[in-house]
Structures are given as structure tokens and as C-alpha cells.
Write a structure and sequence with these properties.
The complex is a heterodimer of chains A (about 220) and B (about 230).
Chain A: H1 3-26, H2 37-67, H3 70-102, H4 110-130, H5 135-148, H6 151-162, E1 171-172, E2 175-176, H7 180-221
Antiparallel strand pairs in A: 1-2
Helix pairs in contact in A: 1-7, 2-3, 2-5, 2-7, 3-4, 3-5, 3-7, 4-5, 4-6
Chain B: H1 2-22, H2 24-44, H3 52-71, H4 73-81, H5 84-89, H6 94-124, H7 132-156, H8 163-191, H9 195-225
Chain lengths: ~220, ~230
Amino acid sequence: MSKNRLIFLGVTAAVSLLYVYMTWIYAPPDVNLGELVRIFFQHVAPALVAYGMFGVTLVGGILYLWKGDLKYDILGAASVKLGLLFTTITLFSGMMWADATWGTPWNWDPRETTTLILWIAYACVLAYRASISDREKRAQFGSIFGIVAFPMVILSYFSIRIWETLHPIVIEPTGLEMAAEHGYTLMVSMIAVIMIATILVDLTYYVDSVHEKLQRIRMSRS
Amino acid sequence: MRHGLEAAFAIAKKDIVTQMRKKVEAFSMFLFALIAVLAFSFALVNQGSIPEEIGSAMLWVIIFFMGMFGFAPIFLSESETGTLAGLATAPIPAWSVYLGKVIYGFTLMGIVELFLIPIISLLFGFSILSNIPLAIAIFVIGTLDLAAVGSMASALTMPSDSKATVFPLVYFPTATTGLMLLIEITKIIVIGPGLVPVIVLIQILLAHLIAILTLSAAVFHFALSS
């Protein structure tokens, strides 16, 4: 492992510890939500990072089609997998929060439903990619699908403004609608989750690149 | 630009003429929709009727699934008859091929909807007559949105090893965005309170349509070149 990677890993571990401290000790109970506000910090950051991951899929797809370099396709596919992971965390933490505040884990709220549809949509991208055996075509068509699927991310993000919803709107154009301590905790949670996601992207990209090279060696020998 | 548009209309015309000769796709779409209405009725009818908002929402769900029959063969038939290579090498821009297929998909769905919508509104007991111009606009935009997504989905199935299975994998998630908006808009048209609340939703639907058309047209030459 390179020195830069080790330093980044160390900083991520330190920020993650700070994230745990701020979530469970520093942040005071909310006026309305009480102690339940702590679930909020495990929910918002993974949700925004999941959207970011699908954004990387979009950019990776555009770059692959533009430059034709397979590394962008590997990056795009890796970000789909991690986007799905963070969407899963978002869904489960959201269900825990919904169960505690609204009395049932699933309320068919527009944000819940569109997030689940988003999960299914990108799972379909992975399934679609797996159905194409030709490597070049998989990259080309997988990139196109990754681009065309992106409007679903936008709809999921804006769903709480389009439909009537139980979901709170905390990110307003004027800023965050919450106490200052909660705002700081949210910011640290965002930084920590982004850093963890970056490490995971790097790792997945590395594993997939090695897998790609192995496949090529196998094909050249057969 | 003009050359591309002429080519798009020529491709659409060729497909429509071929379809009018066979008629099998349009007819099977229509029959599927009727069967779906009857199947849904078992789940939805309560004391002899279906709530208006549910009936109007089911209309788009049926059209959405009907799209599978109409859109899936758009490029598959070209591939089977060996004419796809001709389209790919023709001296026309790739986006005109995509646009031609969208126009064909829209026309095919539109023809079936012309017969289907009155029947479904009658059976499900709701009326879209309260605002006819708005209803027509929504059906035009909605069908165009589904055709734009469906044509792209059909092109994306081409390189797959299992084409028939893969089409729903591509079509369902990409078309769901439009479907959700269409259901919401149609519900508001049917049960009120009218134009003002749906304007924002129509703008989002139009933005989705423009985004899908632009993105698909921009990347279509990659799909066609493979």
C-alpha cells in the first residue's frame, strides 16, 4: 500500500472516530425528535453519498464514451455497486427512523418509494451489464444505461418537494434547518462518509482492474 | 438538421407502414390492455366500482406495461430481418434513427390508446373530460416520454445475450420516473383541483422528456456503431 493511501486511511479513521463521538456524545437531543436525531446522522450522509456515487456512474459513462478508456467504465461499474451499498444503508436507517417516529418502518412515503425504485434501477444496471458477454459492448452499452438511468436520481432527490411527504426537508436554499451542533455533526458525518466511500471506490476499482487483467490473461491463453 | 429530420420521418413511416400490414403488435397490445383491465378489476372493484383516483392511475400502469409489447421489438425486428446494419451504415445521423423509432413508438402507442382510453375510462368509471385539452396534452407528452425511453431500452437490449429478458430490466427503471409523474398528473386532472397544481408536475415531466431525448440522441451513435 502506498504512503499516500496509508495517510488517507489514517485521516479517515480519525475523522470516523470524531463522527462517532459527535453523533453519540456531542450532539444534544433534538427538541422534537429527542434521542432519535442520532439516527438522522447515519441516514443523511449515506443518502447524499449514494446520489454522489450514481453521479460518478454518469460521469464515468460520459468519459468512457468520450475517451474510450476502459478505466472509466470500471470506475462507473464500481460506483454503481457502492451506490447500491449506500442506498441500502439509507433505506435501512430510514426505515429505523420511520419506525421510531411514524410508527411503522414503511409508509409508502414518496422519498421511501423513489429511493427503493432507485435501488432497483441501479440493480438493473448491474444485472444488465452481467447479461452482456462481450467486454467492449458491456462497457459501451453499460455506460449508456448508466447515463439514461440518472434522471431517477434527480426525481428521488426532489420527490419530497414534488409530492406531499412525511419526510422532513432539512436542506433549504437558505441553509440547514437545524440546531448549530446538529449542523456541525452532519458536516463531520458527511466528511467521514465521503472519505470512507472514497476508500471503498479505490478498493473496488483496484479489485475490478485486477479482475479485468486476469480475464484478459485467461482469454489470451485460451 | 433538416436532412436528419426527413430521415427520421422516413424511418418512422417505413415502420408504421410495416406495422399496418402486420397489425399483430398493435392488436396484441390492445388485447393485453383489456386482459389487464379485467385482471386488475378483481383486485380493485369494491361494491361494484373502483375509486376514480385508482382507476385513472391504473390507466397509466396498463399503458406502461403495454409498452413492453410495442417498444421491445423496435430494434429486435430490425436485427432479425438484418436491416439494422443498413440503418447503421446509412448516410444519415444516428440520432435520426433514434428519433424515427421514437415517432414510430409514439404513433403505435397513440393508435392503441385512442381505442383503449375510452374503454378503460368507461369500465373504471372515471372521466378525463373535465379538462380535455389538458388531458390530450398529458397523453401526448406521456406517450412520447414512454416512447423515448422504450426506444432507447430496445436499442440497449441488442448486445445482450438474453434480449427478451433484458428489455424489462432496462425499460422498467428508466420509464418509472415518467410513470410516477403521469399517474400523479392524471389523478389531479380526474379528481381536481385542476390546472394550477399540475403545472409544476408537467414542467418536470417535460424536463424528463427533454433530458431522455437529448441524452439518448447524443449517445445513440455509440449504440448503433456496435
